[in-house]
Amino acid sequence: MSNGLPRYGGTRTASPCIRSSRRILSVLTGELMTPLLSTRHLWQLGFAETPRPLALPRDYDVVRVGMGLGLTAIEMMIDQGHHVGPLLCCIQHHKLLVPVRAGTAHWWGAPHSDCGRGPAQRCETCGGLAACRSRLWMLPAGPLAAATTEPGALHHHLSQMRSRLRDVSSQPQGARVRETCHV
Question: Of 82, 3, 2, 91, whose CA–CA distance to 41 is shortest?
């Protein structure tokens, strides 16, 4: 880090937020930001929907999942050495759109997410597919970067995260046990 700007992939990138004491404010709106994109891995960010990343193949399917569940599963994949492709983040609808290899949609069938055929990059909302105004591309940095994300590993990690969340939410409030790490 030099001159106050973080370095990602060898290029300097200005932060899209202003830190004011303990609050993080959006530069565009001045509103308090939520930690939607909280991550512990380095990512190259493209603050627009176009141009799309050069690494993307011409044909691919898209998995749509909630931002929190999706980003947590992607981070677990990186931690375990799985290849991850570019991600399209919709800040407006709190969705993560994950390009996977073409042909994945016909077998996806998961309750935690849906997979659409072709490179349609629209968010699924209650009223159908919706246009989005606040999206950005996240490209993984490092040796695990790929053209698309491994669909089998993504399905497994999303299912695993959903199962963990359901287990925690099904416990009565008083019965929750605090986890202790014994290293």
Answer: 82
pTM across the whole model: 0.70
Which pLDDT band holds residue 80 (cuts at 50, 70, 90)? very high
- Rounded CA-CA distance 84/87 in Å is 9
Q: Which residues contact 97 (CB under 8 A, 6 or more apart)?
A: 62, 63, 64, 87, 88, 89, 90, 121, 123
Triad 42, 124, 165: Cα angle to 5°: 60
Nearest Cα to Cα of residue 168 among 177, 159, 156, 158: 177
DSSP string, the chain: -BTTB-EETTEE---SEEEETTEEEETTT-PBPP-TT--SS-EEEESSS-SPPTTS-SSEEEEEEEHHHHHHHHHHHHHTT--B--EEEETTTTEEEEEEETT-GGG---TT-EEESSS---EEETTEEE--SSEEEEEE-STTB-SSB-HHHHHHHHHHHHHHHHHHHHS-GGGPPPP----
Q: pLDDT at position 146, please?
A: 94
Residues 135-163: tens digit of each pLDDT = 889 998 888 899 999 999 999 999 988 88
